[in-house]
């Protein structure tokens, strides 16, 4: 395929992709909310390499926003996004309206146990149920062989993997590493909303996480927590929301760093009015 095909309806998308699958082509899928950056594009390049057809979706999913202001201010840059998709030879863009995705009020409630109660789940009630609903719908429409998710949203990745198991979905979930700016800031569509002063401060987030990774064996959890709180909150306009070191599978807090395996340090904070998240694997 040469030119980017843009579909806005479920019917057109699924008709086209069903035909592709029945002709024996594999489908790699990257769901996004747009305002595309190198982080998204890396997922897409990999999906393009590993599949016959690359499908991307752009949909700012209203039901995963617990904060109306955040939804209103979320960057929307469709024309620019389309140019980026063309530059990496994306085959299909699915860009539906909210009405197309949710013709009726959505009532599904998923049970992810502890996984959606902690960290993001605790601070953004209903967020992961909204994510799971939209991802399940998108999988039903696109029927991908493989779907690519960034480790930037680590908790989301674990929840999507759980969704796939719970619902016996046939899609393979491919986790992809975090893409960072040169100064360490994790790429995010929300970075566009930072003022120049805030942007200058932002690399402190990754520096703090690196300190945690490099020094966890020298300190207790309490000391590490205290360090992170003071490193973050001592900057003007920066306010820590949470910092947790959790088990990568269960997302339960690690109580003792010595001997604990496969843990990940996760952070969420406000920089001015912009909420940012990041994480680093400890082992
Ligand atoms: P979003 O548009 O923010 O919903 O992100 C769409 C996908 O891109 C998700 O799987 C994210 O985890 C992933 N993603 C966003 N930013 C990055 C990044 N800096 N590095 C790797 N993946 C990312």
Strand-helix topology:
Layout: E1 5-7, H1 10-22, E2 27-32, H2 38-50, E3 53-58, H3 68-73, H4 78-87, E4 92-94, H5 98-101, H6 120-123, H7 127-142, E5 146-150, H8 154-166, E6 172-176, H9 196-201, H10 204-215, H11 221-233, E7 238-247, E8 263-271, E9 274-281
Parallel strand pairs: 1-4, 2-3, 2-5, 3-4, 5-6
Antiparallel strand pairs: 7-8, 8-9
Bound molecules: adenosine monophosphate (AMP).
Adenosine monophosphate (AMP) binds next to helix 2 and strand 5.
Fill in the keyword field for this structure:
283 residues; alpha/beta; Rossmann fold; Pantoate--beta-alanine Ligase, Chain: A,domain 2; 2 domains; 39% helix; 19% strand; binds adenosine monophosphate
